[in-house]
Amino acid sequence: MTDPEIIIIGAGAAGLLAARELTQAGRRVLVLEARNRIGGRIHTFSDGGVSGPTEAGAEFLHGEVALTRQLLEATGTPCHDTEGLTYEVRHGQLSTAETFLEDMPLLLEKLHQLPQDMPLAEFLTQYFPGNQYQELRSMVTSFAEGYDAADARRVSSFALRDEWSEGGAEDSPRPQGGYGLLLAYLAREVEAAGGQIQLSTVVEQISWRRGHVTVGCNQDRRYQAAKLLVTLPLGVLQAEADTPGHVALVPELPAYRRAVATLGFGPVIKIMLEFGTAFWEQESAAVGHAMPELEFLFSDAPVPTWWTQRPDPRPLLTGWLAGPAADLLRAASDEEILEQALSALAYLFATSPEFLRAQLVAQRVVNWGADPQARGAYAYATVDSEQAQQVLTTPVEDTLFFAGEALYSGPAMGTVEAAFSSGQQAARRLLASLA
Ligand SMILES: Cc1cc2nc3c(=O)[nH]c(=O)nc-3n(C[C@H](O)[C@H](O)[C@H](O)COP(=O)(O)OP(=O)(O)OC[C@H]3O[C@@H](n4cnc5c(N)ncnc54)[C@H](O)[C@@H]3O)c2cc1C
Ligand SMILES: NC(=O)Cc1c[nH]c2ccccc12
């Protein structure tokens, strides 16, 4: 390719959607991607002994997802609702969960009366004080930490109010065959329109002036263009100099870095365990707690959340640890995490880690907080998010543009749809600046 007009950093959902928009508008585009694969926080894998496509990152569709649905249609990918029973284990007691939180109506009522936004932890101490509400405070905090990967001391109460008013996680369809299919399709479209996607290219430095950028990468490679779209994950933009993943800006953009620090970005550890059989379906000599038709399992175990692939009968259990609890394990080895996961499962199913190990066919631990190209899983709103997003979505001198799930200001920040939508918006702004 002759020199590109536009460089895009990152071949995730935001970067690839933007690249398609720009190449199809006739622009010369070069996408630089650090990893040896496309997709970023979408990673559908089939290796390592699993019996089918398995999601290491994004897995579910959240709410209205117009752009995602268009891509599902274009690729002929059907979507399956999850189905089955939700169980709960607390203090060693197994039950089927009727409702997530009995006091949800009361919680929502207080949230809707709240005149001014504040972090969740502050809201709970102020509006639900004392011993009487101890259980409520702890359940609500665990939910925000465990689902939104948020720190309760920072996450916006208004954002949670809006999320919970919409019914939360009840419907969780999945693309059959995985999200990876959509990203592979986008990459094909980009290449068909003349765009280039270059893998294993780690951007280390962005030097810029109005109308010109030089991007310095590993192996002393340099690329130049008139405009740059940065889709680096928020965690990478938050990384300080001399920490893994850091990308230098020359000259620096202090107001942008401050905005980046204002937004929340939480870690997730996902543990995929495939077994010889779905041993949880019936009670046996080895398994004290059977959970027939298990879909979701919520608990007080150190790895608290688990799910199956129902309606797909594959004997795969996915463990999920997020927020401050995942933060504590950022530096832990995968083997340590696997051990914790197996001992959590032993408690939950009233069995032994040895029994579980003997049943294990394939395993994978993905510690997103420890990944230098992500440094976390997804963004959450803080009290000052809106202003910060306004700063970050304003192009710098019509030369530097930013996109990514964290910059999407609609109701589903932190999702694949948010990333697609933010990529599309940034591409359109960029095109307008070229007109
Ligand atoms: C465990 C997990 C579960 C999730 N579950 C869901 C879910 O169920 N549903 C949902 O909708 N969303 C989910 N999400 C969120 C969703 O995956 C993200 O919001 C979305 O994929 C982000 O896309 P993006 O393009 O903004 O960022 P990314 O996908 O992170 O793309 C950025 C790209 O930049 C690259 N990069 C980083 N550093 C450099 C560098 N120095 N040089 C060059 N390239 C670099 C990265 O490798 C990456 O490919 C989940 C995320 C995680 C981690
Ligand atoms: N299991 C999930 O879908 C987690 C998730 C991804 N992005 C989010 C945004 C908000 C809340 C949860 C999520």
UniProtKB/TrEMBL annotation:
Pfam families: Amino_oxidase
Protein residues bound to FAD: E33, A34, V203
Stretches assigned to the Amine oxidase domain: 14-431
Listed InterPro entries: Amino_oxidase (IPR002937), FAD/NAD-bd_sf (IPR036188), Flavin_amine_oxidase (IPR001613), Flavin_monoamine_oxidase (IPR050281)
Record's keyword terms, sorted: Auxin biosynthesis, Oxidoreductase
Reaction equation(s) it catalyzes: L-tryptophan + O2 = indole-3-acetamide + CO2 + H2O
GO biological process, one term: auxin biosynthetic process
Required cofactor(s): FAD
Highest rank taxon of the organism: Bacteria
One of the record's GO molecular function terms: tryptophan 2-monooxygenase activity
Gene3D superfamilies: FAD/NAD(P)-binding domain
Pathway: Plant hormone metabolism; auxin biosynthesis
Protein name (database record): Tryptophan 2-monooxygenase
